[in-house]
Amino acid sequence: MKYLCPLWLVGLLMFASIQVSAEEQTLRVLAWPGYADSDLVADFEKRYKVKVEVTLVGSDEVLRSKMLEHHGGDFDVIAANTAEVHYYVDQGLLQPLRPDRITNTAYQLPRFRDYAQIPDILIDGHVYAIPYAWSDMGLIYDRKQFRQPPDSITSMWDPRFQGKVLAFNTSNHNFSLASLSLGGDPFWINADDFPRVSEQLIALRRNVLTFYSLPEEAAELFRTHAVALLFANYGRQQLLQLRDAGADVGYVIPREGALAWLDCWAVSRGARDTALAHAWINFMLEPQVSRTLSERQGLSNTLEEPKDISPASRLIWLRPVEDDQRRAALWQRIVSGERPPLRETR
């Protein structure tokens, strides 16, 4: 006897099928501002006949919270720096990539295709990320207030510029900067050295005008408060922003070196369609798309050598730190004006 399915059940099954199909054709992207502009997204959607949902973040802390909320299940492809990539791999939030599916890597400079030489991309023999954009985090200075460009990171502590320095509100980078200014390792601070590095950060807090969170905020503060020196956490993106606003500013890599980030595309463990995620990464590496990033954001892409960076510049690529939770807890006390204890009870 042949079973006849009721019409209401047929309709329900068809509706469910349409819903699943629609979900499978939506690519969920977690990225930084400027990495997924609407016109580029529209081009990708038209080419692959899919929908792209973009979620933007402004800090590594927010990026982590988004990824940790549902164990990476809310996104298919993400943009993160190499240090964060390593963290996400350790947390089981990313899946290995298939570089053979990303043919536009052939356009990249050789050093960005040598995964074994890039920290935190090749882990346990698997490639987890593809380089996309990078920038050093140098110092932006007001040409009118400096007869000579500042040549050291310690300029941020110079009492002559008290109340005229802007720094970024973050724990990891600030501890790295303070350690670097004292001649130490920026990413590995020994337990006995934490009190000295913390004191250096307390001194920085007393010297700065404030700690900013977004580049737009820093640009406004720079213009309205006659700021002399700015730690450019967003790198040359901030330099371009200030110059576009008419500021007479210069940019330097301090003699101690500059922290530098390398943002990559990676595929979340919860990706619904890994082939589509790989297609997105491949699209982002098309020459015109990568050049658009540099033209609009002032960031360096991985296809062309930047024209205004000396090969002799010392870039210190971000690495995982010894204890980011400890740094975060101490930073909250420092930035709030509370003095951390000289010796912590661990």
Account of the 3D structure:
The chain is of the alpha/beta class. It folds into 2 domains: 172 residues, Periplasmic binding protein-like II (D-Maltodextrin-Binding Protein, domain 2); 131 residues, Periplasmic binding protein-like II (D-Maltodextrin-Binding Protein, domain 2, 3-Layer(aba) Sandwich). The protein has 12 helices and 15 strands. Strands 1, 2, 3, 4, 7, 13, 14 and 15 form an 8-stranded mixed sheet that branches. The protein has a 5-stranded mixed sheet with strand order 10-9-11-8-12, with helices on one face. Helix 6 crosses helix 7, helix 6 crosses helix 12 and helix 8 crosses helix 9. The longest helix is centred in the first third of the chain and has 18 residues. The N terminus is likely disordered.
Question: What is the CATH architecture annotation of the largest domain?
Answer: 3-Layer(aba) Sandwich
Unreliably modeled segments: 1-5, 7-23
The CATH superfamily title of the largest domain: Periplasmic binding protein-like II
**Share of helical residues:** 25-40%
Describe this structure in a few short sentences:
This protein is of the alpha/beta class. It is 38% helix and 18% strand.
Offer a few descriptive terms.
single chain; 346 residues; alpha/beta; D-Maltodextrin-Binding Protein, domain 2; 2 domains; 8-stranded mixed β-sheet; 38% helix; globular; disordered N terminus
